[in-house]
Sequence to fold (520 residues):
Amino acid sequence: MSAGTKAARRRAAKARNGAGQPQPRFFGASLPGFHEEELAGSLIVLEGSDGSGRSTQITLLTEWLESQGFAVQTMGLRRSYLVAEDIDELLANNAVTRLTLALMYATDFYDQLEHRIVPALRSGMIVLADRYIFTLIARAVVRGIDREYLHGLYEMSLRPQLTFWLNVGPEAAFEREFKKTHAISYWEAGRDMSLSSDLYKSFIRYQGMVKKEFEVLARRHQFIEVDGERTVAEVNGDLRGRIAGHLGIRSTRFRPTSARTPAWR
Amino acid sequence: MKKALDELVNPQAAEIEPGPAEGMRPAPRKEEARPYPGALVVVEGIDGSGKSTQLYLLKRWLEIGGYRLHFTEWNSSELVKSATKRGKQRRLLTPVTFSLLHAADFADRCERQILPLLHSGYLVLADRYIYTAFARDSARGCGTEWLRNLYRFAPVPDVTFYFRAPLEVAVHRILSGRPKLKYYEAGMDLGLSFDRAESFRIFQGMIMEQYDRMIESDNFVVMDGTIKVDRLQRKMREIAGERVDLERYRPGKKP
Fold:
């Protein structure tokens, strides 16, 4: 095959995929009854531990993108209509094995993928995901569920166009979480894993384990690592820069409205 | 297999350094020795194939003989009942979420009921098993590989009876006895037909096709569901006795 043909094909592929996304949109098999070419929007994922500032960043990014004329849809864990309540109940009662819980989270995720993410992307919206399959995989792996099993489970999920990892150390995460709620939740501390009877130690160990698994995922899925211990404005500037590049937005200047300024520190 | 579940849900895995990505592990092989003293007997087949009647009779025979046994059904746990109900009532379930909810339900039953019983030396009789999910969900369009991976934690049965009756016979048995077919049960979500009975007929045919494909790969014992009930039951007892060392589950025996 001549070099010219190859280049032409690359150009054609780039044109087909809009913003130049060379990879297939699904990790593995596609969702039943689903066609790739219908998707016009972009999926942008923010991952990071509790206290990494994800939700704040998503609020700010939404405002910025809307000011630039982009329609935004968000998603997050345990937000499906189908099973969110049931998962809340299972967590509250701690009455479930980890495999069952992992499968309930998968149900919650796919319900949102099919009923929220795909329809939004189909109509050309930007989907901002507050956590994605990577958190679900990491949490399940540290609880002893096979990594490849989980990747197989989530193979019908969409490959994000950008995946940011807001990386913060467990100690900084603890301080931020504590400031927010003045208590540490049972699950954030990984207390179901019997790591330590001391909640602080348990939190640090658990978040450390999840972070280690994220390092594995970051290599495998080309995360964009962002130092999440800096100020909200600094982190937001980094995110805007990468997203602007992806969406072809010329200016990354942004000042949040007064409603958002308390977060802008 | 216990071994498969241990590999999948390993309490020590958290201590293991994350290594490079490994390839997908295949499903447990059938030839592997059972790592538990119990035994698992499964019946499969489309609605109206006669499987539940036959398993009931097998169960009665063993119960009357005083054997250590437990009977389990597909989709019987409380865990996901509210979600399944919500999804079905509002018709929100897609092939994927339908499949996942049933897998979550089965995982719960498997970890809290089937495996502990197998480990404590029970004879477990299951009316429908993972092959129901394979047949039904792949008929709905889920990928076979995805489904096989999803249920990788399930122990492989000692014997799987596949009850097979001609489609028209099986469907007639159902339609003549129970006129009210539920939406998902009839496969209405697939848009096969506006007529519920007709949709059911087509859907059952698709499921049967999927079952037939597993006969060889999953070592099914094919049972002719048109044979007279008592004769078929004699045959079933005979085969169960060949495939499972029933003596071990008799009264007074330590498994």
The interface with chain B takes residues 28-29, 31-33, 81-83, 85-86, 90, 96-100, 103-104, 106-107, 110-111, 114-115, 141-149, 151-153, 155-156, 193, 209, 212-213, 215-216, 220 of chain A (CB under 8 Å).
